[in-house]
Design brief:
By secondary structure, the protein is of the alpha+beta class. The chain has nine helices and 17 strands. Helix content is 29%, strand content 26%. It is a lipid-anchor.
Length: 348
């Protein structure tokens, strides 16, 4: 098997997002750029100081790094002492106390699972690992179908119980293994945005692993401009440029993180119903929402649902969704009615 998953820490914007920013400002109010690594990926932040505003970028970056470190140490499956890793080792039917932040993410994940009828599911970590996309297993052959079929009835969001106050969770099956990779980065984006506002910074763009939130504006009252990448292998081609005022955007796709075996591509996105990587023609899903955490999870859910069911889901729940669907050697665009205002802004 030839592994083609890209090294995640050098990806500027995973699964389809390229940030286009004006770099030609030479005044004292020029954009402040902060960057670093977190949660197995990179972050990039642009700050546009208000008129006359002064702050120390090193101080702000230190606060951001500290905030992200806390989140990572709570929700990572790669850290043995995280809330998630401790729970994954916990006994069946045993309540475990978790932090308020971890509970916030898990509770939202369960809501999206219910809304999508299980298309989004944080309990399928063992299936993710089995296919070689988790922290514990790196496979060189396809999983045994018997193992997949044995796991399926033992996992599922309905086998995770949540108690909000005090925050506790428990598993009803030994095979329940939480993986927050489809929602935690979105939460981290929201958390950094709140931190910046608390520090009186109102104009910014935050991107972590391709998940984005904007607030305020750039110089001269310009809106932040985000590019949606076309899923062309080996290239970065912008399909759409969106003007995004005070919203979050998340993109999910199968064209960056995958492997090939005997000429067949296997996506990192696992369908909780079948236990296998998705195989439909939906290549990229972009969701715009007020919450990046919610957009992150919804993008994954719609990716699992596929182009037809995904668009129906977006329409039913009035979600702003843009999709690229592979058709032969090209990609066709589909979007929900709630996404149209952002496309009109591009035309203007």
């Amino acid at each position: 098997m030839k592994i083609k998953s890209l090294i995640i820490v050098i990806i500027v914007a995973i699964v389809g997002c390229i940030i286009y920013l004006n770099q030609n400002v030479t005044t004292q109010d020029q954009l402040v750029t902060l960057s670093g690594t977190t949660m197995g990926t990179s972050y990039h932040i642009k700050l546009a100081p208000a008129e006359g505003q002064k702050f120390n970028p090193k101080t702000i970056k230190a606060k951001i790094d500290e905030r992200l470190s806390v989140i990572d140490h709570l929700m990572s499956t790669y850290k043995e002492d995280s809330d998630i890793s401790k729970f994954n080792r916990a006994a069946v039917d045993s309540w475990m106390t978790v932090s308020t932040e971890t509970m916030t993410v898990i509770n939202e994940a369960q809501k999206i699972s219910q809304l999508s009828h299980g298309a989004f599911d944080i309990t399928i970590g063992n299936l993710v690992n089995l296919w070689g996309f988790g922290p514990t297993i790196n496979i060189y052959e396809l999983p045994d179908e018997k193992i997949i079929q044995a796991l399926l009835p033992q996992v599922g969001y309905n086998k995770l119980e949540v108690q909000l106050s005090p925050p506790k969770i428990r598993k009803r099956s030994e095979s329940v293994y939480l993986d927050l990779s489809g929602i935690a980065k979105g939460y981290a984006v929201d958390a950094v945005a709140r931190l910046l506002v608390q520090n009186n910074i109102e104009n910014f763009l935050v991107e972590i692993g391709g998940e984005i939130i904007t607030h305020g504006h750039k110089q001269q009252q310009q809106t932040w401009v985000i590019g949606i990448e076309s899923p062309v292998g080996g290239e970065r081609v912008v399909r759409k440029r969106l003007h995004l005022p005070d919203v979050a955007m998340a993109t999910s796709g199968d064209y960056r993180n995958y492997f090939e075996h005997e000429g067949v591509r296997y996506s990192h996105t696992i369908d909780p119903v079948t236990g296998y990587p998705i195989r439909h023609a939906l290549a990229s899903v972009t969701v715009i929402d007020r919450s990046c955490m919610r957009a992150d999870a919804l993008a994954t859910a719609i990716t699992v649902l596929g182009p037809d069911k995904g668009l129906e889901f977006a329409t039913t729940h009035q979600l702003a969704v843009y999709m690229l669907v592979k058709q032969g050697d090209r990609f066709i665009e589909q979007h929900s009615s709630a996404f149209e205002p952002y496309l009109k802004a591009e035309e203007d």
